[in-house]
Design goal:
By secondary structure, the protein is α/β, with parallel strands linked by helices. The chain has a single domain, classed as Rossmann fold (3-Layer(aba) Sandwich). 37% of the residues lie in helices and 15% in strands. The protein has 7 helices and 7 strands. A 7-stranded mixed sheet has the order 3-2-1-4-5-7-6, sandwiched between helices. Helix 3 packs parallel to helix 4, helix 3 crosses helix 7 and helix 5 crosses helix 6. The longest helix is centred in the C-terminal third of the chain and has 19 residues. The model has no long low-confidence stretch (mean pLDDT 95).
């Protein structure tokens, strides 16, 4: 009997759960160091519908940490390269790509009740807050990535934003969400103090990837539970 590429996943989670993943629809904001690994893991788990949102092109500086970044993809659109990669994993997947520069409305307006989950993997604070706020308004589960730059440890913690400590980005997001009376926001963060403090964060190959894989794990477990 010919083996299906999803067989080993089905052995672990069961047919019903796998069918839930196939029917689910997840939107990922930010297809960079964290987000590219989120997309990769969701695709390989069998998530059938993915929406990718990013404005950037791949640069040479992305190669050290982004799964879709190689010397051959430098200069190409991150979302277009990632879409092609996902379809090479699962040709039957439905992949939508959105470049906010080409939209005639705010990017967070893409979020509606048709989505099973929202992943925030962007760096911009204003955008992060807008994504979280829209997801909450629509009643769609959301998970937000806090800072992964300037770190060497992968001791990431998944928790409510109100329980976060040390992470400077989480502190800002927590404060702003309180102003908006937004509660119960799942985030992933680290208590590790930044090794260096630079305006443009330093990074290493494995840290953003581990965060992205952990986010994908949370999304998958929440969808199938």
């Amino acid at each position: 009997m010919e083996e299906n590429w999803k067989d080993r996943t089905e052995k672990l989670i069961g047919k019903t759960a796998l069918e839930k993943l196939e029917k689910s629809k997840v939107i990922i904001y930010g297809i960079g160091g964290v987000g590219s690994y989120v997309v990769e893991a969701l695709a390989r788990a069998g998530v059938g519908n993915l929406s990718l949102v990013d404005i950037d092109k791949i640069s040479i500086s992305n190669i050290n940490r982004q799964i879709h970044s190689t010397v051959k993809t430098v200069g190409k659109s991150k979302i277009e390269v990632m879409k092609k990669r996902v379809l090479e994993i699962n040709p039957k997947a439905n992949i939508e790509i959105f470049n906010p520069k080409e939209l005639d409305f705010e990017e967070q307006e893409l979020i509606d009740k048709t989505y099973s989950y929202v992943v925030d993997a962007v760096d911009n604070i204003k955008t992060k807050l807008a994504i979280i706020e829209k997801a909450k308004k629509e009643g769609v589960p959301v998970i937000s990535a806090m800072g992964a730059g300037n770190k060497l440890s992968c001791n990431f913690i998944v928790s409510d934003i109100e329980k976060t400590e040390v992470c400077p980005l989480a502190k800002v997001i927590r404060k702003e969400l309180r102003k908006k009376n937004i509660e119960n926001v799942k985030v992933i963060y680290s208590k590790e103090e930044p090794i260096i403090k630079e305006r443009i964060p330093a990074s290493i190959s494995y840290v953003p990837g581990v965060m992205g894989l952990m986010i994908a794990g949370e999304v998958i477990k929440d969808i199938i539970k």
